[in-house]
Amino acid sequence: MNQFISLHKEAGCKALRQLLRQPVATMLILLMLAIAMTLPLALYLGVQSGQQLLGQMNEVPTMTLYMQIDAKDSDNQTVKKALQDNKQLEKVVFVSKQQGLEELQHSMGNQDLISMLDSNPLPDAFTVTPQVDTPEEVAALQAQLAQLPMVESVKMDAEWMQTLYRINRFVHQLLWFLAITLGLAFALVAYNTIRLQILSHREEIEITKLLGAPASFIRRPFLYLAIWQSLLAAAISIGLCYWLNSQTQPLLSEILQPYGVHVVWRFFNLWEVLTILLVVCGLGMLGAWLATRQHLLSFKSVQ
User: Fold this and answer.
1) Which of 128, 150, 160, 225 is deepest in the core (most CB within 10 A)?
2) Are 192 and 296 contained in the same domain?
3) Which residue ranges does the record assign to the FtsX extracellular domain (predicted)?
4) What mean pLDDT is predicted for residues 205-229?
5) Within 10 Å of residue 54's Cβ, how many Cβ atoms?
6) How much is the average pLDDT of 168-190?
7) What is the rounded CA–CA span in Å between residue 142 and residue 278?
8) Domain boundary at 156, 175, 199, which?
């Protein structure tokens, strides 16, 4: 067990010394890897912070149920009870025809609308707030409410809700696309970096192989080299995300303040940081493993 730990410690220290031996080249590689990581990480923070914004902007619109003109109070009470018993509705507000006329009069300002009318042409109405997630569920709920007795029609701002839903869905798809493609790019960069390191130590590796060293012994320093590169690049990327958050937060607050919306860019929590480090190290090790495997296979074919 002590020998196993000693071998890994020696390989890790050797890889770190190899990075420090070429500081300029190492920094360029780390910056390239960090920039590739920063794009999906910054978008992830934007998506998570945007959930708060969507919540404040009311992603699901309200619906208005218009009763028939000849609907009686008993009909209104029947519909009101059916709405209150509906589990898909969060809030139900009754707006009488008299209240609707007064609001219309108030919106028209100085014009005396009431004196111009022989009778109130407005119907009683209910304003309801659904608690459903998708446009399909909202459309199904609208059709269900339209079947209630003495309900003339059900209106809602479906286009605005569907636009918000599609934007949110598009951003999530873009996030996954960037995460997968840039993750593969990260692994390819790590592969190419380790391959160049292997070529620069080709003679040393071949001599070690001729002396009977197993593949794991040859591969171990390069795996630790990939781990060090991944950890340092991840640290730089997280630092870039923090800088980006601090720079964009004042501008975001200035843009949204006139609309009464307050959004704070969130940052990674501890578990997210650990997940990032694990995923990045896994991608780096994958690239290093493929590079060393290719070299060892080519060496065998030469033999």
Assistant:
1) 225
2) yes
3) 63-154
4) 73
5) 15
6) 79
7) 46
8) 156
Q: Please, what is the Cα angle at 279 between 274 and 283, to 5 degrees?
A: 150
Domain with 198 in it: 2-57+163-302
Compute how many other C-beta atoms are within 10 angstroms of the C-beta atom of residue 219: 22
Which CATH number is 112's domain given? 3.30.70.3040
Residue 302 confidence (pLDDT) above 50: no
pLDDT band, residue 274 (cuts 50/70/90) = very high
State whether 174 and 261 are in the same domain. Answer: yes
Q: In whole angstroms, give the CA distance from residue 54 to residue 88.
A: 20
Q: What's the CA gap between 51 and 46, in Å, rounded?
A: 9
If asked whether residues 168 and 147 sit together in one domain, one would say no
Number of domains in the chain: 2
For residue 21, name the pLDDT band (cuts at 50, 70, 90): confident
173 lies in the same domain as 34: yes
Same domain, yes or no, for 77 and 44?
Answer: no
One domain, residues 175 and 271? yes
Greater model confidence, 184 or 132: 184
Based on the domain organization, do 181 and 219 belong to the same domain? yes
Token pair belonging to 147: 């079947």
